[in-house]
Automatic annotation (TrEMBL):
PROSITE patterns: SLC26A, STAS. Its main location: membrane. It is found in: Membrane. This is Sulfate permease 1. NCBIfam families: sulP. It comes from the Eukaryota.
Amino acid sequence: MIQNYPHKNVRVTDYASRLVHNPVQQLLHYLASLFPIATWIYRYNLKWLYGDLIAGITVGCVVVPQGMSYAQLATLPAEYGLYSSFVGVFVYCFFATSKDVSIGPVAVMSLQVSKVIAHVQSINPSFDGPTIATVLALLCGAIAMGIGLIRLGFVLEFIPIPAVMGFMTGSALNIIAGQVPKLLGIASKYVNTRESTYLVIIDTLKNLKHCKLDAAFGLVCLFILYAVRFSFNWLSVKYPRYSRWFFYSNVMRNGVVIIFATLFSWLVCRGDPKNAPISIIKTVPSGLRHVGAPTVNRSMITALTGELPVSVVILLLEHIAISKSFGRVNDYKINPDQELIAIGVTNLIGTLFNAYPATGSFSRSALKSKCGVRTPLAGIFTGIVVLLALYALTGAFYWIPNAALSAIIIHAVGDLIAPLDKSWAFWRLAPLEAAIFIVAVIITTFVNIEAGIYFSIAASLVVLLWRVAKPSGHFLGKVKVYQVVENSPVTETRPLKFDPAPWSPSFLLRKFRNESPRSNENLSPHLHSDSVDNIAFDSGSDDIPVAPQFITEEEPSKKPFSKQSAVPPSPVSRQVWVPLDHAGINPSIHVLPPSPGVLVFRPCESFTYPNSARQTDRIADEARKLTRRGVSNLQINLGDRPWNDPGPRHRNLESMAEDTRPILRAVVLDFSVVAQLDMTGVQALVDLKGELSKYADRDVEFHFASVLDAWSLRALVEAGFGGNKGGTVPAKRYTDLALVSSSDNINDNDWAPMIPTDTPFFHLEIPDL
């Protein structure tokens, strides 16, 4: 006896009660989540301290020369890069959910800061660069923290990979082009590095004759950086026993190059430092000379407003992408909203030290990860190294050649350019997105970074809306399949290989570590000795299997099996529903259409206002194509016939071929991939039912399979679907039963319906009507 299981609609109060359930506890949990350090600091131990100390000091040795280089890129004095470096790593550790990310000045953000300074000064030349950069950090930090506090971090997911690839590659090209004149000692009056990338390249080539002695320092430093990098990477592969020593030696290449460049610069310029033959940093104030609240001017904020969107996107997108990547690589989960709060608070506090916008650095984060960092507290040790440099080494910083800093910048951003072979692989993977990326890079090169970012985001949103508005969907047919067990020659598990995408931080991390793509057990299934598929093998010989094929129940004997490669099919078969147009399956398979007068349709997108009309039109057109009207035009008066389908003028029945198509009796909608159903979609289904019922001159049954969303189910029931409110009795009533007990003694009371019994037009799977 089948138990009764009535349908119960989900209630609005059920949803609301979850939002307001125990608000005090939710508030306390929310406040505690703002300080993730409280969840692990009490378990801090000496082993963690050792890992954090090594990683923190190593990153500190790298961030000092990089910070000064990036400050020069931002058109700021070198000390401001050090201010941003130590504040970022100090503050971030208290709010972070990522142990690997290193906060501080980065190349792309520094380039954006330089553009913002130039833009604001073109409006009001009285504003100085450091103040503009600090106010920009204040505004970006406030926006980031606000987005994180109200938990809107998901909006960053609307910025797709082509946008990230486009602005990273375009920015890297722009940075390199802008640093080459400084590398060669070409004066700024000959090359305006704020122009478009192609103009900077042209002007640089035209003015090569104006190179100075700086070129000797810059080119030699750049050559040494790449030579040391490739040499130690090769030695690590050649002598893996000493790979750890080679790694740390390789890491120190920036610092060593700066030390020797400074030494030679001192030897060249010490006689007359005011009239030095090369460009040097000169005076770097010792300590924290610019501590205090920034001076915020309303007119400055007004001038900054137009540059804020791009600045915030660059600040947040790079950080979230890096933190997510290292979380996946090192097996922990980050909280994007909390990371936005962390980056926001870091920049807000940084304004008290006149720091300019700081975000996550890929190269330094990869270095921390490789050094075995254990907790976010490693940032404290990095900050201490930067502070020691600020108080103890500023005298030596006077002699650092600007050409050497340009060499460090060029060397650092070179890895941000997508390689040609990986770009080609991306084209093969997704041509449309790859085209957006290529156009974005071209626009970035020939216009500016902002135009490239805006274009790539806008183009990606247009593609998304196009796909939503014109979704794919399939009319389904049925195939009976048998289970075949293939004897694989594999005797032990073999993890599948994967190659990270060229735009992903995972790929850049492999490149930074000089590692080849490796296997990942969490991403790829294992190949076992036996694999089971619903296939049979057509074989030209007894031993060599060829293309696997689905087989039908009607003709199982026509599909021979290799005696050595497969076991004969199981006598147990099952019915599957596949696209009638053979999308995604072997085109030689014979797919049986549904029963006469039945349509089975599977939408491949949510059934919502942008696309519901288009999908219902497809169903209506298919119904008119495969079925006939319930009442023929020949059976009604000439004046009562529809104007758009009048039929023959005269009733010469003998000259008319009989329409043998069936009359539509049921439409089955497979909602297994429909995530959302809104009011417009429901109304479109109601209109479709009325239209088809009038066409068939009967009440057409509408069946729904796999409606798993409670709100979609409620909407369909309230619209009159699923039950027999109108007196409709299904031609075939299906009830999916399942056991409610694991006992060996099964009786009728141990069976229960899977879905409500008072909605006979709702099904767990597609019914065979």
